[in-house]
Amino acid sequence: MQLTSLPNAQRPREKLIEKGAKALSDAELLAIFLRTGLPGMNVIELAQHLLNENKTLHNLFNASMDEFCSQKGLGTAKYVQLQAVLELSQRYMQERCQRDAVFNSPNSVYDYLTIQMRGLQQEVFMVLYLDSQNRLVKDEILFYGTINAASVYPREVVKAALKNNAAAVIFAHNHPSGIAEPSQADKLITNKLQQALQLVDINVLDHIIVGGETCVSFAERGLI
């Protein structure tokens, strides 16, 4: 059925205007992004087809450019547009957290880190610099690659924390495998960094590992 044949209450744009974005299904929201369907398939049907093929929004949004563009109704222009939307969303969340958030518990940073590290195929080590009220001053990726004593340098972490006038820090890194359990190397380097930062009176509040949609907190585990 052509979209124009549907009553206004069933058309995604009109429904969003009348009821707000939260009232729309994943397929309806994706349909607004896609804008047009294909011969024999209206835009909502195309959106639902893409969701069925990819299983989840996460899989669709984190597909490589080649994987994304190979799918029905998609192409380079849509890929570029999607990446811009995702980056804007990430920057919005970062700006809001920097303005409002107080990172005084593991739960207060889980959503933020999940968004920051979503879809990364390479392991990275990030530091969140906090002020004396545990508000986010800045986040920064300091190291790339497998996290161990050979690739994470305490001197560089201390230097960066002092440069950003941090009163406290939270470490975070991702496991692209999706398994968030800390390794022995994770525990060893965290202890080494904690000792180094104690010398300059900077508190290490936590080290959080992000694996897919799961996060593990060293603080909650009693490892810090």
TrEMBL record:
Give all residue intervals belonging to the MPN domain. 102-224
Report the superkingdom from the record. Bacteria
rRNA-binding found in the keyword field: no
Q: Which CDD domains match?
A: MPN_DUF2466 (cd08071)
Keyword annotations: Hydrolase, Metal-binding, Metalloprotease, Protease, Zinc
- Mark the transmembrane ranges: none
Under the heading SUPFAM superfamilies, the entry gives:
JAB1/MPN domain, RuvA domain 2-like
Q: Which Gene3D superfamilies match?
A: Cytidine Deaminase, domain 2
Q: Which InterPro entries match?
A: MPN, RadC_JAB, RuvA_2-like, UPF0758, UPF0758_CS, UPF0758_N
User: What's this protein's family per the entry?
Assistant: Belongs to the UPF0758 family.
The protein's name in its UniProt record: DNA repair protein RadC
